[in-house]
Design goal:
The structure holds 2 protein chains of 2 kinds. In chain A, about 30% of the residues lie in helices and about 30% in strands. Chain A is of the alpha+beta class. About 0% of the residues of chain A have low confidence. By secondary structure, chain B is an alpha/beta fold. The chains are: A alpha+beta, B alpha/beta. Chains A and B meet through strand 18, strand 19 and helix 11 of A and helix 2 of B.
Chain lengths: ~375, ~240
Amino acid sequence: MDTNLQHAKHSSGDLENGEYVMIDKIEITNFRCFKSQSIGGLKKFNVLVGPSGSGKTALLEALFLVAGGSAEIYYRLRGWRGLGVGGSLALALTGTRMSYESMFRELFFGFDNKASARVEIVDSKMGYRRLSVSYKPDAEYELPLGEEGIQNFVQVNPIVFSWKTPHMHVESKVQSKEGKLQFAGTNDVYPIWLISPSAPSSYAQHFSDLSKKGESAPVVEEFCKLFPIVKGISLESSAGQMALFVELSPFKEKMPIGMISAGMNKYLEIMVSIASNPGGVVLIDEIENGFYYESLTMLLRSVCRFAEEQKVQLIATTHSYEFLESFASVMGEGKEQHFNLLRSSRNEDGSVDIRVSRGPSAKSAIVQHFEVR
Amino acid sequence: MGNSVIKKAFHIVCEGRDDKAFFTKLFEAHGIQDFEAECARTNNDPKRCAGKSGITDTLLGLKAVNDLNPGILRGIIIAVDSDEDPAKSFESVRRSIKETKMQLPVPDQALIPKLDPQGMDPAIAILSIPWIDQPGHLDSLLFDSMQTSHADLIAPIEDFCDSTEHRTRDWAQNNKSKMKLRCAIAASKEGEPGLSLAYFLESSECEINFKDVKFNKIVNFIKEFSEHLNGKTRKPKPHPAA
């Protein structure tokens, strides 16, 4: 199962025609820390800054959710936030309605689950894609709880995740089978990949998929160009698990990439995400993590060039001014019009606002060292 | 290089370090607390004050600060030297503002800032030094003020400058003013006669009287600008050139 990829693609015709399909607008209502948020005019490259706890990761997760087609991804996100149950989807509830609803309370702004939570994206091709999450007050559902084999039910109003586009409408409800939660859904998902420090990385598998299709060469080429000591990348078995290994000059034996450099590992993950998701969107939480400051500009130049080649839209969060300076420098190389700086901040009522500054202004502020984070 | 945190509601973008020091002292002397001054810089060389050529990039940077933190920065005054031709200097600032697509002051050549109907951009006004209808610059204004604070030096400096006519006859009036001001600073600083204007103004022993009436027009301009934007006055006085 893909962990951090909504693995659908825009048709290959879009890419061949040179069309750069991008999310242009995001609307979020009553979801997590967002009371009512509208962000328009998104570009190819979007960087989000803001204090800790100001909703940066929540925005990426909202996008990840709206891209999905099953309520299962909400449980996946909870797991990444430390609210999972040992990687299993079994629920350890106390058998009360309150305990069932407590699982979803944080999904709604101000814990107000009477109104629906909504996330909507609008792109330049498909039109809108909307996720609504709400309880069905007029329906009751017996949710089996507890260990396998133990019959225990709780009457609940089911929570429903509903995805809608101009061409489809699907509802995903929580079901229980053999002690595990199961989620109905659709495969009609939006091509979004989320890279997060808290999400398990599955990019070795995706590198393998690219390799099998003969599409890994551009990634390997870019990687070796940037790190000349690396002569090649391959997928190898290590203690029964598949992992990416590199041929490192002057050594004969290959080494697991994760053992060499966190930065190399992160860079490769981003490049594989882009190559695996042409015409899609890659979300990167805390993009600066693992990168050496002197390499940032070079790495970003490579990532942005590759994203443009693959017609991938990037939305990244950062706390680092060094990253912003490097980013402004890369955008200054003729990409100013394709760049947005976004900033999230908390209001007194706990809601989050996200503001946007367009490329040329944002670049000037960063270069001139105005504090914009 | 630390980052500049915009904390005050009003910002003066000026040409150089001298101007920044002058305005900072002026704010202190007149109890003006909601303004800060900083010199204009270009993106190509952001560590140096860049004069008029840095106005566009600095305004764009301030626009981003305002876009991302709306409500903190409410107004910007761009303070520039009139130089030999006040109208030309003023027009060059207008061109810089136009490049940023921010709100130009209205009507043309007036003190009155145009308020952005959408409330997205800070209001902008242009302040010409010594004044919109007078050629000159900060140096000439300061030397003018020294007529009182350094009265004993004025006649000898004028005599000295006259005696250099064989070399300076064709100099622009502004450059002659700069020479006179440097002479006045040198003559009043025994310990450091080579002190730059910026250091002179920044010094706690600076003998300029910042409450001198010669600075009143500028002080009033600044106060009226903020009062107008704070809604305390219905309309600032129109600019003499309007």
